[in-house]
Design goal:
Layout (H helix, E strand, L loop, with lengths): L1 H7 L4 E5 L12 E5 L9 H11 L7 E7 L4 E6 L2 H11 L15 E4 L4 E6 L7 H8 L3 E10 L10 E11 L6 E4 L2 E7 L12 H18 L5
Antiparallel strand pairs: 1-7, 2-4, 2-5, 3-4, 6-8, 6-10, 7-8, 9-10
């Protein structure tokens, strides 16, 4: 199985290239506080009370505080990603609001967190523009890297042909996708682990499972 043999020797070293396209439409450093269990909207004083007395956020750490009435969610844009990440880690599901056992816990999540998507089997004829055009239907492409073989190998530093795409996924990406008129195997953490695309089970089923385990291992995540 040639693909698996090559992947076993690869280390994720990439040369980052930003696709030349329209401005990237993602919400950066933004935390979503879900109040959808309420049958009403929060008033201004309640919003500020929750952020101040529950999340303990000083004003100088916030860039935006927005209530979305349609989703019944409070969106907080922080000064940097690390602060937003720590806020979710420390407060997700920890508080009930309004206070009391009758009310549900408030869950926090990061908005538009990029996912690492690995693309295999593409030739050098497939450009970054081709990749972006194919993946735009599934989310927002942030950057594209061209992986190289690790330095300690005899041919280290030479491009492997594998692409690492950082993107905000809006809907699931198929495990086999046509990019630039070439079939590409797509692997990322959180991918739907159901059967491979129709007609690909016998040929690619084992490869999909192997690559998924390999990517998880490279990113330090277990099955």
């Amino acid at each position: 199985m040639l693909v698996a043999t090559e992947v076993e020797r690869e280390f994720l070293i990439g040369v980052k290239q930003l696709p030349k396209a329209d401005p990237i439409r993602v919400r950066r450093n933004t935390v979503r506080c879900d109040f959808s269990h309420l049958k009403r909207e929060l008033c201004v004083l309640e919003m500020h009370d929750f952020v101040d007395n529950y999340l303990r956020l000083p004003p100088d750490r916030l860039e935006r505080l927005q209530w979305n009435g349609h989703q019944r969610c409070l969106f907080l844009r922080l000064k940097d990603f690390r602060t937003a990440q720590q806020l979710v880690e420390q407060h997700n599901g920890r508080h009930r609001y309004p206070p009391g056992r009758l009310w549900a816990r408030i869950f926090l999540s990061l908005e538009d967190t990029p996912t690492e998507v690995m693309l295999y089997d593409l030739s050098e004829l497939v450009t970054d523009a081709d990749i972006k055009a194919a993946l735009d239907a599934y989310g927002v492409v942030v950057s594209i890297e061209h992986n190289k073989w690790r330095r300690e190998l005899r041919y280290g530093g030479i491009p492997s042909g594998h692409r690492l795409v950082h993107m905000v996924i809006r809907r699931p990406i198929p495990q086999l996708l046509n990019i630039g008129n070439e079939p590409a195997v797509v692997v990322y953490i959180g991918q739907d682990e159901d059967q491979p695309p129709a007609g690909c089970k016998s040929r690619f089923g084992g490869v999909f499972r192997y690559l998924r385990r390999l990517v998880k291992a490279c990113l330090g995540q277990a099955d």
